[in-house]
Amino acid sequence: MLDDPLAVRIIGDDERQQLESRISRRFPPNPDDHPASRLLRAFVVARSRCAEDILAAAVAGGADQYVVLGAGLDTFAYRNPFDDLRVFEVDHPATQAWKRACLAEARIAEPGGSSAVTFVPVDFEHQALEEQLQAAGFSADRPAIFAWLGVTMYLAEVSVWNVLRYVLSRPAGSAVIFDYALAASKLSSLQRVAVAGMAQRVARAGEPWTAFFDPDELARGMRDLGARRLLDLDGAAINARYFAGRRDALDVGSIGHLIVAGT
User: Fold this and answer.
1) CA dihedral (91, 95, 96, 102) positive or negative
2) Which residues pair with 88 in a beta bridge?
């Protein structure tokens, strides 16, 4: 579903060996796994596949800038199949330093030339995305695709809207793909229990979820900011698009939401 030969390399030898050991034993249960972990792992893969599908279509239409917001260990820039597509990786400075150390240890080269990767250090809560991108050589007068995966739920709501205000003011042909956490009022009682369990896990790790959205209110706000095309994929839509007909019944469940919005 998502061909990423670098994902295992970049996580390092220790993590790779643990993963290979689990695979060889047919994925025995991990006592630290939450019951929703399998669904979450499927969602992580699906959202990356969706972003890269949108990017491929945009490149075919002439887009030549890809901005990965909160890039983490995303590997697209190091397996980029598109000539002349410039990739900007935006993330917290400390996270970027850690990632570059992981790349060096895994001997994954940082591409240069016309398909160069540019690291843009940004603290979304305290710095303006526009200023940092401009300083890094981003061309604000040309279309760009923004992937913002696994980030919004960790920010203050005002910070999410500040970023959306910027990306939805980009030239026609631009788009943003991001996932978000649903407001409790939009969840069933069982879904609330599942979300609470996941939220507790990330909170214990020091990264609590802080932003939750009502899909209708989010859509209205984005249209007000200039979104002309808007697609909100819920769990059922993601499963139909990427997991239909699987023999292992792998899917993303019913909680995750992905939005694709274009100018």
Assistant:
1) negative
2) 67, 118
The whole-chain average pLDDT of the chain stands at 90
Please say whether the beta carbons of 173 and 183 come within 8 A: no
Tokens of 186: 């939009």
CA distance 33 to 201: 10
Hey, how many other C-beta atoms are within 10 angstroms of the C-beta on 168? Answer: 22
Identify the pLDDT of residue 205: 86
Q: pLDDT band at residue 13, thresholds of 50, 70 and 90?
A: low
Give the confidence band of 35 by pLDDT, cuts at 50, 70, 90.
low
Residue 239 tokens read as: 């499963």
CA nearest neighbour of 176 among 144, 223, 219, 214 = 144
Instruction: Identify each DSSP E strand in the chain by its residue range.
Output: 65-69, 86-91, 117-121, 145-148, 175-180, 229-233, 257-262
